[in-house]
Amino acid sequence: MELTERRKRALGPAYELFYETPAHLVRGQGVWLWDADGRKYLDCYNNVASVGHCHPDVVAALAGQAATLNTHTRYLHENVIELSEKIASKMPGDLSVCMFVCTGTEANDLATRIARTVTGHKGMLASEFSYHGNSTLVYTLSTADSDERPDWLALFEAPCSYHLAFEGKNLLDGYVGSVRNAIGDLQNRGQQPAAIIIDSIFDCPGTIEAPPGYFPQVFKTVRDAGGLVIVDEVQAGYCRTGNHWWGFQHDSAVPDIVTLGKPMGGGHPLAGVVTTPDIAARFAASSDYFNTFGGNPVSAAVGKAVIDVIDAEGVLENVTRVGAHTRAGLQQLKNQYDIIGDVRGRGLFLSVELVKDRDSKVPAASTARKMADLMKDEGVLISTHGRYENTLKIRPPMVFSKENADQLLAALDVCLGRL
Ligand SMILES: Cc1ncc(COP(=O)(O)O)c(C=O)c1O
């Protein structure tokens, strides 16, 4: 039986596959992937392989610890403590306590539980068209997918400067006002905010960067209403946006809780919640915490190795430099091709929005899907996303070089020319 059909039978139809002809990948190294026919692809999509596919130091850390001991966090072990200390050393302010889980979903679930316990409130604020994970609780906060709108949830608009959600207001006032209105909605229903959960770059609607001043004003607005600030760094964290380790550091405000995931284990399932000693103590006063797999000695060894590779190989500087080069190249393509309505993002977290007409901004969703297929034929893997499904998503492993970026840009040029 053909693999796609066999997979559908074995896993059920809820699982999606990318591309008209799905990719059957069998090997990865650095920024490269190979399929079962031996065809080589430049990976411009996979952010989980943060320091490159199968990085030898990460593989060695995993194999070495797996061959020595793997248990859980109810015994003393240096690895989990050292991992926490390494993460804390990358965080600003008082964010120095880490709790470990296995997925971004669990991180956001635990962060919500902490915020509710500490504030005594139940209300949550989430952005329109967001994705934060797939547990029953967190899926409800994932407003791009879930239709459920319980009375404890109120939504605000992500601060998009391309598709404006407001008329006649300045960007900052309009979008901070949207958060204020969401708090008002909660209060009208008799709910108080436990927290806002907010991406530092809003990925799901199409990689939206907040305007300067947005985060400080939003954080203050939520805190004035008695809520905490959870920043979801599951995609944007770990240097992905360039210049800083964390996406929220592009502005001056510091969150109360930060959630981490995807890039943290370089391919291994490792995620976490970072908060302040004060919040951690207030949570522990009424709740204890255990996670069978989260922070085990093998996962923690992997997590430490990823951070060491980032530091040793100058990955942050690479993202900053190659990200700027890539974005400039995308901007250049925008000058050549009218179908490109907008280029967005920071570092190596980039998006290209395709529109049928620049004035009307009518989304070119089917063309975006076609572009992903054409790019695959050119040996470059990207994908699509966005509120209108018309945005090309570019998010390669962070060891992406200028040469790799030039290959991506040349392939985009060829494929745009073929439309
Ligand atoms: C911003 C963000 N938060 C949370 C998650 C959930 O992470 P996981 O799939 O590891 O549960 C995702 C996954 O796509 C994400 O993009």
Kindly provide the radius of gyration, computed on alpha-carbon positions and rounded to a whole number of angstroms: 21 Å
What does the overall shape look like?
globular
The N- and C-terminal alpha carbons lie at a distance of: 34 Å
Number of discrete helical segments: 12
- The named CATH superfamily of the largest domain: Type I PLP-dependent aspartate aminotransferase-like (Major domain)
Name of the CATH class of the largest domain: Alpha Beta
Helix share, percent: 25-40%
Bound molecules: pyridoxal-5'-phosphate
Secondary structure layout:
Blueprint lengths: L2 H9 L13 E5 L2 E4 L4 E4 L12 H11 L11 H13 L6 E5 L2 H16 L3 E5 L8 H6 L11 E4 L14 H18 L4 E7 L1 E2 L5 E2 L4 H11 L3 E5 L24 E4 L10 E5 L1 H8 L12 H16 L2 H22 L3 E7 L2 E6 L10 H13 L2 E2 L1 E3 L5 E4 L7 H17 L1
Parallel strand pairs: 3-15, 5-6, 5-7, 7-10, 10-11
Antiparallel strand pairs: 1-2, 2-3, 4-12, 8-9, 11-12, 13-14, 14-17, 16-17
This protein binds pyridoxal-5'-phosphate.
Question: Can you offer a commentary on this structure?
Answer:
- 38% of the residues lie in helices and 18% in strands.
- By secondary structure, the protein is of the alpha/beta class.
- It is built from twelve helices and 17 strands.
- The chain has two domains: 3-51 and 314-418, Aspartate Aminotransferase, domain 1 (Alpha-Beta Complex); 56-312, Aspartate Aminotransferase, domain 2, CATH 3.40.640.10.
- It has helices at 3-11, 56-66, 78-90, 104-119, 136-141, 171-188, 214-224, 277-284, 297-312, 315-336, 365-377, 402-418, and strands spanning 25-29, 32-35, 40-43, 97-101, 123-127, 153-156, 193-199, 201-202, 208-209, 228-232, 257-260, 271-275, 340-346, 349-354, 380-381, 383-385, 391-394.
- The chain has a seven-stranded mixed β-sheet, sandwiched between helices. A four-stranded mixed β-sheet has the order 1-2-3-15. The protein has a four-stranded antiparallel β-sheet with strand order 13-14-17-16, with helices on one face.
- Helix 2 packs antiparallel against helix 9 (297-312) and helix 4 (104-119) packs across helix 8 (277-284).
- Pyridoxal-5'-phosphate binds at residues 103-105, 108, 131-133, 199, 203, 232, 234-235, 261.
